[in-house]
Protein backbone atom coordinates (compact mmCIF):
# COMPACT_ATOMS: atom_id res chain seq x y z
CA UNK A 1 0.00 0.00 0.00
CA UNK A 2 1.26 3.49 -0.70
CA UNK A 3 -0.05 6.98 -1.31
CA UNK A 4 -0.74 6.21 -4.98
CA UNK A 5 -2.00 2.69 -4.45
CA UNK A 6 -4.91 1.60 -6.58
CA UNK A 7 -6.26 -0.31 -3.58
CA UNK A 8 -9.21 1.30 -1.82
CA UNK A 9 -7.31 1.96 1.39
CA UNK A 10 -4.61 4.62 1.50
CA UNK A 11 -2.01 5.11 4.19
CA UNK A 12 -2.25 8.37 6.15
CA UNK A 13 0.11 9.37 8.96
CA UNK A 14 -0.78 11.51 11.98
CA UNK A 15 2.34 12.99 13.58
CA UNK A 16 1.75 13.33 17.32
CA UNK A 17 4.20 16.19 17.76
CA UNK A 18 4.62 19.93 17.96
CA UNK A 19 8.24 19.72 16.81
CA UNK A 20 8.83 21.59 13.53
CA UNK A 21 11.86 19.34 12.88
CA UNK A 22 9.79 16.17 13.07
CA UNK A 23 7.20 17.71 10.77
CA UNK A 24 9.84 18.47 8.13
CA UNK A 25 11.42 15.03 8.42
CA UNK A 26 8.23 12.99 8.21
CA UNK A 27 7.21 14.94 5.09
CA UNK A 28 10.22 13.39 3.32
CA UNK A 29 8.42 10.02 3.26
CA UNK A 30 5.98 11.41 0.69
CA UNK A 31 2.87 10.07 2.44
CA UNK A 32 -0.04 12.30 3.45
CA UNK A 33 0.61 13.62 6.98
CA UNK A 34 -1.61 15.35 9.51
CA UNK A 35 0.08 17.05 12.41
CA UNK A 36 -1.64 16.75 15.79
CA UNK A 37 0.32 18.15 18.78
CA UNK A 38 0.27 15.74 21.68
CA UNK A 39 0.28 16.66 25.37
CA UNK A 40 1.32 13.46 27.08
CA UNK A 41 2.81 13.25 30.58
CA UNK A 42 6.58 13.10 30.06
CA UNK A 43 7.61 12.06 33.58
CA UNK A 44 9.23 8.66 34.15
CA UNK A 45 10.30 6.88 37.34
CA UNK A 46 13.99 7.04 38.29
CA UNK A 47 16.09 4.09 37.21
CA UNK A 48 14.52 3.47 33.81
CA UNK A 49 16.99 2.69 31.04
CA UNK A 50 17.18 5.31 28.26
CA UNK A 51 15.69 2.87 25.74
CA UNK A 52 12.68 2.35 27.99
CA UNK A 53 12.23 6.10 28.55
CA UNK A 54 12.17 7.03 24.86
CA UNK A 55 10.00 4.09 23.83
CA UNK A 56 7.48 4.71 26.60
CA UNK A 57 7.28 8.46 25.94
CA UNK A 58 6.97 7.94 22.19
CA UNK A 59 4.11 5.49 22.85
CA UNK A 60 2.39 7.86 25.27
CA UNK A 61 2.52 10.69 22.73
CA UNK A 62 1.09 8.42 20.02
CA UNK A 63 -1.59 7.00 22.35
CA UNK A 64 -2.76 10.49 23.37
CA UNK A 65 -3.49 11.28 19.72
CA UNK A 66 -4.73 7.82 18.69
CA UNK A 67 -7.32 7.98 21.49
CA UNK A 68 -9.00 10.98 19.86
CA UNK A 69 -8.49 10.05 16.20
CA UNK A 70 -10.80 8.32 13.80
CA UNK A 71 -9.87 6.82 10.45
CA UNK A 72 -12.23 7.25 7.52
CA UNK A 73 -13.36 4.09 5.68
CA UNK A 74 -10.89 4.58 2.85
CA UNK A 75 -7.72 5.11 4.93
CA UNK A 76 -5.28 3.28 7.16
CA UNK A 77 -4.48 5.97 9.74
CA UNK A 78 -1.22 5.49 11.63
CA UNK A 79 -0.30 7.80 14.50
CA UNK A 80 3.44 8.37 14.96
CA UNK A 81 4.93 9.54 18.27
CA UNK A 82 8.58 10.18 18.97
CA UNK A 83 10.83 11.15 21.88
CA UNK A 84 14.51 12.13 22.03
CA UNK A 85 16.94 12.28 24.95
CA UNK A 86 20.68 12.74 25.29
CA UNK A 87 22.54 10.31 27.56
CA UNK A 88 25.92 10.96 29.19
CA UNK A 89 27.44 8.68 31.84
CA UNK A 90 24.13 6.86 32.07
CA UNK A 91 22.22 10.06 32.85
CA UNK A 92 19.33 11.10 30.63
CA UNK A 93 19.11 14.76 29.67
CA UNK A 94 16.05 16.28 28.09
CA UNK A 95 15.45 19.89 27.10
CA UNK A 96 17.15 22.50 29.32
CA UNK A 97 15.03 24.32 31.91
CA UNK A 98 16.64 27.66 30.98
CA UNK A 99 19.80 29.23 29.54
CA UNK A 100 21.81 28.49 32.67
CA UNK A 101 20.85 24.83 32.48
CA UNK A 102 21.85 24.79 28.78
CA UNK A 103 25.30 26.18 29.71
CA UNK A 104 25.74 23.49 32.38
CA UNK A 105 24.71 20.73 29.94
CA UNK A 106 27.08 21.92 27.21
CA UNK A 107 29.94 22.10 29.74
CA UNK A 108 29.34 18.43 30.50
CA UNK A 109 29.12 17.40 26.84
CA UNK A 110 32.31 19.31 25.90
CA UNK A 111 35.10 17.13 24.51
CA UNK A 112 33.18 13.91 25.11
CA UNK A 113 31.01 11.38 23.29
CA UNK A 114 27.37 11.03 24.30
CA UNK A 115 24.47 8.98 23.01
CA UNK A 116 21.27 10.32 21.50
CA UNK A 117 18.28 7.98 21.93
CA UNK A 118 15.10 8.46 19.93
CA UNK A 119 12.03 6.29 20.37
CA UNK A 120 9.37 5.94 17.70
CA UNK A 121 5.93 4.49 18.24
CA UNK A 122 3.27 3.79 15.60
CA UNK A 123 -0.36 3.01 16.35
CA UNK A 124 -2.80 1.95 13.69
CA UNK A 125 -6.00 3.65 14.80
CA UNK A 126 -8.51 1.10 13.54
CA UNK A 127 -6.86 -2.01 15.02
CA UNK A 128 -4.80 -0.48 17.83
CA UNK A 129 -1.78 -2.44 16.55
CA UNK A 130 1.22 -0.73 18.11
CA UNK A 131 4.87 -1.03 17.03
CA UNK A 132 7.60 0.71 19.02
CA UNK A 133 11.39 0.82 18.65
CA UNK A 134 14.36 3.10 19.23
CA UNK A 135 17.70 4.03 17.71
CA UNK A 136 20.95 5.23 19.27
CA UNK A 137 23.47 7.61 17.68
CA UNK A 138 26.84 8.51 19.21
CA UNK A 139 27.82 12.17 18.98
CA UNK A 140 31.31 13.48 19.75
CA UNK A 141 31.49 17.13 20.81
CA UNK A 142 34.48 19.40 20.32
CA UNK A 143 36.18 20.93 23.35
CA UNK A 144 33.98 23.95 24.07
CA UNK A 145 35.38 27.03 25.78
CA UNK A 146 33.21 29.02 28.19
CA UNK A 147 33.07 31.87 25.65
CA UNK A 148 31.91 29.55 22.93
CA UNK A 149 29.21 27.98 25.09
CA UNK A 150 27.99 31.45 26.09
CA UNK A 151 27.90 32.58 22.44
CA UNK A 152 25.98 29.50 21.38
CA UNK A 153 23.44 29.64 24.20
CA UNK A 154 22.87 33.34 23.39
CA UNK A 155 21.57 32.29 19.95
CA UNK A 156 18.55 30.71 21.70
CA UNK A 157 18.89 27.57 19.59
CA UNK A 158 19.56 25.14 22.50
CA UNK A 159 16.49 26.01 24.55
CA UNK A 160 13.95 23.63 22.97
CA UNK A 161 16.36 20.79 22.25
CA UNK A 162 17.41 17.71 24.19
CA UNK A 163 21.06 18.02 25.24
CA UNK A 164 20.91 21.79 24.60
CA UNK A 165 22.13 21.73 21.00
CA UNK A 166 20.71 21.34 17.52
CA UNK A 167 22.93 19.37 15.16
CA UNK A 168 20.83 20.59 12.22
CA UNK A 169 21.51 24.23 13.08
CA UNK A 170 24.47 26.34 14.13
CA UNK A 171 24.99 23.66 16.80
CA UNK A 172 26.58 21.59 14.01
CA UNK A 173 29.70 23.73 14.53
CA UNK A 174 30.13 22.24 18.00
CA UNK A 175 30.05 18.64 16.78
CA UNK A 176 33.21 16.70 15.93
CA UNK A 177 31.41 13.73 14.38
CA UNK A 178 28.65 11.18 14.73
CA UNK A 179 28.22 7.44 14.41
CA UNK A 180 24.78 6.21 13.42
CA UNK A 181 21.61 7.76 12.00
CA UNK A 182 21.77 11.58 11.63
CA UNK A 183 17.98 11.97 11.58
CA UNK A 184 17.87 10.13 14.89
CA UNK A 185 19.75 13.06 16.47
CA UNK A 186 17.37 15.59 14.91
CA UNK A 187 14.44 13.72 16.49
CA UNK A 188 12.95 11.27 13.98
CA UNK A 189 14.95 8.30 12.64
CA UNK A 190 13.32 7.98 9.23
CA UNK A 191 14.83 4.63 8.28
CA UNK A 192 13.58 3.09 11.53
CA UNK A 193 10.14 4.63 10.99
CA UNK A 194 10.10 3.21 7.44
CA UNK A 195 10.89 -0.27 8.85
CA UNK A 196 7.92 0.00 11.21
CA UNK A 197 5.59 1.29 8.48
CA UNK A 198 6.60 -1.61 6.23
CA UNK A 199 5.28 -3.97 8.87
CA UNK A 200 1.84 -2.42 8.32
CA UNK A 201 2.19 -3.19 4.61
CA UNK A 202 3.14 0.36 3.61
CA UNK A 203 5.57 0.35 0.69
CA UNK A 204 8.13 3.14 0.51
CA UNK A 205 10.90 3.76 -2.06
C1 LIG B 1 20.08 16.49 20.11
C2 LIG B 1 19.04 17.23 19.31
C3 LIG B 1 17.71 17.31 19.72
N1 LIG B 1 16.79 17.99 18.97
C4 LIG B 1 15.37 18.09 19.39
C5 LIG B 1 14.47 16.97 18.85
C6 LIG B 1 13.26 17.10 19.71
O1 LIG B 1 12.35 18.03 19.10
C7 LIG B 1 13.79 17.72 21.01
C8 LIG B 1 13.65 16.76 22.16
O2 LIG B 1 12.42 16.94 22.78
P1 LIG B 1 11.20 15.92 22.68
O3 LIG B 1 10.52 15.92 24.01
O4 LIG B 1 11.65 14.60 22.13
O5 LIG B 1 10.25 16.55 21.58
P2 LIG B 1 9.52 17.97 21.50
O6 LIG B 1 9.00 18.38 22.86
O7 LIG B 1 10.42 18.95 20.79
O8 LIG B 1 8.31 17.69 20.51
P3 LIG B 1 7.03 16.69 20.69
O9 LIG B 1 7.11 16.05 22.06
O10 LIG B 1 5.83 17.56 20.52
O11 LIG B 1 7.18 15.69 19.56
O12 LIG B 1 15.19 18.00 20.77
C9 LIG B 1 17.16 18.62 17.80
O13 LIG B 1 16.32 19.24 17.13
N2 LIG B 1 18.46 18.55 17.38
C10 LIG B 1 19.43 17.88 18.08
O14 LIG B 1 20.61 17.86 17.64
Automatic annotation (TrEMBL):
<comment type="similarity">
    <text>Belongs to the Maf family. YhdE subfamily.</text>
</comment>
<protein>
    <recommendedName>
        <fullName>dTTP/UTP pyrophosphatase</fullName>
        <ecNumber>3.6.1.9</ecNumber>
    </recommendedName>
</protein>
<feature type="active site" description="Proton acceptor">
    <location>
        <position position="83"/>
    </location>
</feature>
<dbReference type="GO" id="GO:0005737">
    <property type="term" value="C:cytoplasm"/>
</dbReference>
<feature type="site" description="Important for substrate specificity">
    <location>
        <position position="21"/>
    </location>
</feature>
<feature type="site" description="Important for substrate specificity">
    <location>
        <position position="84"/>
    </location>
</feature>
<dbReference type="Pfam" id="PF02545">
    <property type="entry name" value="Maf"/>
</dbReference>
<dbReference type="InterPro" id="IPR029001">
    <property type="entry name" value="ITPase-like_fam"/>
</dbReference>
<keyword id="KW-0378">Hydrolase</keyword>
<dbReference type="InterPro" id="IPR003697">
    <property type="entry name" value="Maf-like"/>
</dbReference>
<dbReference type="GO" id="GO:0009117">
    <property type="term" value="P:nucleotide metabolic process"/>
</dbReference>
<keyword id="KW-0963">Cytoplasm</keyword>
<keyword id="KW-0546">Nucleotide metabolism</keyword>
<comment type="function">
    <text>Nucleoside triphosphate pyrophosphatase that hydrolyzes dTTP and UTP. May have a dual role in cell division arrest and in preventing the incorporation of modified nucleotides into cellular nucleic acids.</text>
</comment>
<feature type="site" description="Important for substrate specificity">
    <location>
        <position position="168"/>
    </location>
</feature>
<dbReference type="GO" id="GO:0047429">
    <property type="term" value="F:nucleoside triphosphate diphosphatase activity"/>
</dbReference>
Amino acid sequence: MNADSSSNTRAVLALASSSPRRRELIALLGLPVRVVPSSADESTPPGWLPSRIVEELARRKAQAVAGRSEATDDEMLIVVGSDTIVVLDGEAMGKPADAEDAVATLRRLSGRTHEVYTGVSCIEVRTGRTLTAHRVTSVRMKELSEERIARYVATGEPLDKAGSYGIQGIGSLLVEGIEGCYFNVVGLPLSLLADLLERYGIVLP
